[in-house]
Amino acid sequence: QDKANYKREVSESTLEWLRQDLSYVPKDRLVILSMHAPSQRRDQPYSTSYLTNCEKLYDALDGYKVVIMSGHLHHNYTYTVSGSIVEHNHASLMGNDWDNNAQGLCNDGSPRGFTVYRISGNSLSDNYYKGAVTDRSFQMRLYAPGEYDMYLGQGDFGNVRKNDMVINIFNWHTGWHVEVDEDGKKTVLDENIKAQDLDALNGVRVEYLGKKGLITAVMKGMKDVAPEDRPAFGQVVNEARQQVEEALEKAKQALSEKAEEERLKAEVIDVTLPAKKANIGHGHPCQIALDEVERIFIGMGYEVVEGPEIEWQEYNFTKLNIPEGHPARDEQDTFYINDEILLRSQTSPVQARVMEQGKLPIRMIAPGRVFRSDSIDATHSPSFHQIEGLVVDRHITMTDLKGTLD
Predict the structure, then answer these.
(1) For labelling alongside 167, which of 16, 68, 326, 344 has CA 20 to 30 A away?
(2) Could you give the angle at which helices 12-22 and 54-61 cross, rounded to 10 degrees?
(3) Among candidate residues 110, 142, 143, the one with its CA nearest the CA of residue 129
(4) 282 - beta bridge partners?
C-alpha cells in the first residue's frame, strides 16, 4: 500500500512473484492466498476498500481453485469472485474498539470473534463464524423496528432508515438468499446494498460484466448448452447484460450528478473572508543573520543603533584616534567621495555619535554595511557587514564581556 497516496494495488513485482510461485503448484490443488486489504467488497460504500488492479490479480490466479483470506475492513463476509475464486473477508477490532466498544460489535454488526474453517482433502468444505463470548449457534441477530435506530450512521448500515427492521446475518455470503417467514408469508430477500460512489459502482460493474464477472461466466457456459437451445440461451443472457448495463448507466448518471452537487457545495467561497497574504521572496542570508544577532542582544538589554553609510572623515577616522598619515586613511583602503566625505570603512563612527550625546549608561550594538577598497576573492569584498558593541557603565569588567560573548 502507498501510504502517502493510499494507493491500493498489488505491485507488478508481487504479481510476478505470485506467478512464479504458482508455476510450481499443480492446477488441481487448492490455493489459499492471504492478503491484508480485500480485492473486492460486497457493499462498496467507499472507494478505499478494494484493489484498484484486482483484475490483474484474478488473471494471475486464473486456472486455479483459490480461496482468498483478507481483512482490513473490520467486518465479515464471503464474496464469490468467480466460479473458481472465493474471498473471505475477516473482521478484527482495533485495540481501542476492544476496550471502549461497549457493544463489542465489528463494523458489520457481528460480535467480535473469529472464523473457523474446515479443510477436507483438497477443498475448503465448511466455515462458520464464532463470537468470542457467544455460542456457535448465534449466527444472526434480528432488530425489531426502531431497535437499530441507535446505530444509524455507524458501520456498514448506511441504507438503514429509522424504524426499519434489520436482519443482521454474520459472515454473509454473496451467494446466499434470506427467506423471511412472516405469518406464513415467505419472502426471499437479497442484500439491500447500493453503490454509494462511482468507484463502488465500478466494483459492481466488474462483479457482473468483468472478465471474471457473473454474466461473463454464464456466457462461457454456452458451450455446455445443447446446440438447438443456444440461440434462446444467448438472447436471454444478452437481454440480462443489456438490463445490467442500463441500470449501471442510470446509476452512474445519478452518482455523477450527486458528486457534482456535493463538489459545488464544498467549493462555496465566502467573499467576506480576509484575503490570504502572499509571501513573495525570501530574506537575504546576511539579513537573516543580522536579525538573529539583534534579537539576541535586545534580549540582553542592548539598543540597536544605526548610522549613515556616507560618513564624514572626522567621524570615520579623527574621532576614533586614527591620525593623519595612518594607512587606513590611504585611498588604497578607503572609498573617498571628496576630501571630507567617504563611504564608512567601519561601524565605529556610530559609537562616536552616541557618546557625543553624553547619555549614560550606554549599551548598544551597531550593525551595518561598510566599504573598503578590496579586490573580490574568497575572503574579501568591497562591501560587507559588520557588528560591534559598546558598553559604558559603572562596575563593568572583563567578566561582563566574557559572559556576553558566551
Answers:
(1) 68
(2) 10
(3) 110
(4) none
State the first-to-last Cα distance of the chain, in angstroms, to the nearest integer.
51
Taking a C-beta distance cutoff of 8 angstroms, is the pair 108, 76 a contact? yes
pLDDT at 58 over 70: yes
Q: Is 251 helix (H, G, I), strand (E, B) or coil?
A: helix
φ, ψ of residue 49 to 5 degrees: the values are: -125, 5
How far is Cα of residue 8 from the mean position of the Cα atoms in its chain? 13
Q: Give the containing element (helix H, strand E) for 115.
A: strand 113-120
pLDDT at res. 192 = 40
Q: Which strands, in side-by-side order, build the sheet including 30-34?
A: 30-34, 65-70, 85-89, 77-80, 172-173
C-alpha distances in angstroms, 251 versus 50, 113, 203, 205?
20, 36, 13, 11
pLDDT for residue 111: 80
State the cell numbers at 344: 564608512
Query: Do 212 and 220 contact (CB within 8 A), yes or no?
Result: no
DSSP assignment of 318-363 equals GGGT--TT-GGGSTTTS-BSSSSEEE-SSSTHHHHHHHHHT-SSEE
**What are the tens digits of pLDDT across the range 281-311?**
888 998 899 999 999 999 999 999 999 999 9
Furthest CA-CA distance within the chain: 124
What tens digit of pLDDT does each residue of 63-101 get? Answer: 888 999 888 777 777 877 777 888 888 876 544 444 444
pLDDT score of 318 more than 70 = yes
Alpha-carbon distance of 382 to 233, in angstroms, equals: 94
What ranges in 49-170 are assigned the alpha helix state H?
54-61, 95-100
* Spatial distance between the Cα atoms of 403 and 43, rounded to a whole number of angstroms: 71
